Structures are given as C-alpha cells and as structure tokens.
Amino acid sequence: MKTKNRPPRRRVPPQNTEATPGEQTPDRPQPGSGAPLAKGLRSRTARAQGVRAEGGRRRPGLSGQAGRRESSVQRRLESNERERQRMHTLNNAFQALREVIPHVRADKKLSKIETLTLAKNYIKSLTATILTMSSGRLPGLEGPGPKLYQHYQQQQAAGGALGAPEAQPEGHLHKYSTQIHSFREGS
DNA sequence: TAGGCCATCTGGTCCT
DNA sequence: AGGACCAGATGGCCTA
C-alpha cells in the first residue's frame, strides 16, 4: 500500500543540549518507560552510553570521570545536530528535484525513491529525444551530434552488458511515460 | 492493523 | 582531530 498526499510531518523539536546521560530527553517516547522494553530495544540512555544488550560495540572512553562523559555527550549532541542539518540539506535537494520533474500532479508529493526513479528515466528520455533530434541533422547541431551519439552508444554497450532493458532511445521514453502514468494512477 | 515512508539517533569509517 | 558520510535501529505518522 502507498502513502499519498501526506501533509508535512510534524517536526520533532531539537534535542535538549543540556541533557546528560541518565536523563530522558522528551523528543521521543521511551520504550522503556512504563512498558518493558521489547526484545532488541534499548533505552536512549543506554544507547547514548554505548551499551548494547548483547554482543554490541561499546564506545570507548565513557567509563571515566563525569567531565569526560559530559564532553563526550556534548560532542554527540553536536554531531546529531550536524547530521540533522545534513539530512535537511539532502531533503531540500530532493524537493528541488521534485519541482523540476514535469507531468506530476502538484498535489501529490513524490516519495524519495519515486523521485529518484522518475528523474533517472526522465533524464534518459530527454537524452533519447536529443539523440533523435541530433541524428536528424537539425540546423545548428552538426557538430556535437555524432559525438553525442557515439557516447550514447558506448553507454548503452556498457549498460547492455549489465542487462539494461532499454536498448533503444524509444525505450526510455516509453518507460518514462509508463512510470508517469503509474504514479498518477497511484499504483 | 499492517505496511510504507520518514526523521532522528547512533557508531563506524572515510576524508581533509 | 574533527567533520562528513553512511547504514542500521527505532519509533511516529499516515493510509488502505
């Protein structure tokens, strides 16, 4: 089943940077509070301290004084913040990509995997279109046409060896239009 | 309720 | 050494 037309998710507030090991941060419910932890689950505190239920890695340098532990926790929180920012940047790039993919209903937000797949096939269909036009010797395209076609053939040869299904330019266009159709249908 | 998608945390590894 | 990158784990939200 698919998730369609989902409104923007509620942002989880940033983690409290004053938190210390042993405290529960409020941004996410703790499985261990109240009901017992499910198998394989650990509390955030346990995870922050690098403790695994069994056979896990243990972060070095956390067995010392409180000061060292505090600076370690501080580093981890800063790292978390950087990671959040990095993921936001990545999501912005996904959004920018969504906005340049045509023929998709504006009220339907593409998932990440849909965005990547559609973009890939859109690029391929554009490439196929360009090749078709340039092989027809359009005015002003005398130069790059043959080179572009050679490059394309090399790419196809490499891809064909890996079993790529689209051997002809028309295949890309067909695949792209088919995919657009399926996305619009919500399948 | 199950499953899909996502945000966030986390520790390991790579890179500068 | 510190930051970027990556992948696994976890849990929330949403839809069918």
From TrEMBL:
Compositional bias ranges of the Basic and acidic residues kind: 67-84
Domain of life, per lineage: Eukaryota
Alphabetized GO MF terms: DNA-binding transcription activator activity, RNA polymerase II-specific; E-box binding; identical protein binding; protein dimerization activity
Biased composition (Basic residues): 1-12
Record InterPro entries: bHLH_dom, bHLH_transcription_factors, HLH_DNA-bd_sf
Predominant subcellular localization, coarse grouping: nucleus
Pfam families: HLH
UniProt xrefs under SUPFAM superfamilies: HLH, helix-loop-helix DNA-binding domain (SSF47459)
GO CC list: nucleus
Keywords: DNA-binding, Nucleus, Phosphoprotein, Repressor, Transcription, Transcription regulation
GO BP annotations listed: axon development; calcium-mediated signaling; cell-cell adhesion mediated by cadherin; cell-cell junction organization; cell-cell signaling; cellular response to glucose starvation; endoplasmic reticulum unfolded protein response; establishment of localization in cell
Domain BHLH residue range list: 74-126
Chain segments carrying region Disordered: 1-84
Localization: Nucleus
Database matches in PANTHER family: BASIC HELIX-LOOP-HELIX PROTEIN NEUROGENIN-RELATED, CLASS A BASIC HELIX-LOOP-HELIX PROTEIN 15
Subunit-structure text: Forms homodimers or heterodimers with TCF3 gene products E12 and E47. These dimers bind to the E-box site, however, heterodimer with MYOD1 does not bind target DNA.
The protein's name: Class A basic helix-loop-helix protein 15
Annotated organism of origin: Myotis lucifugus (Little brown bat)
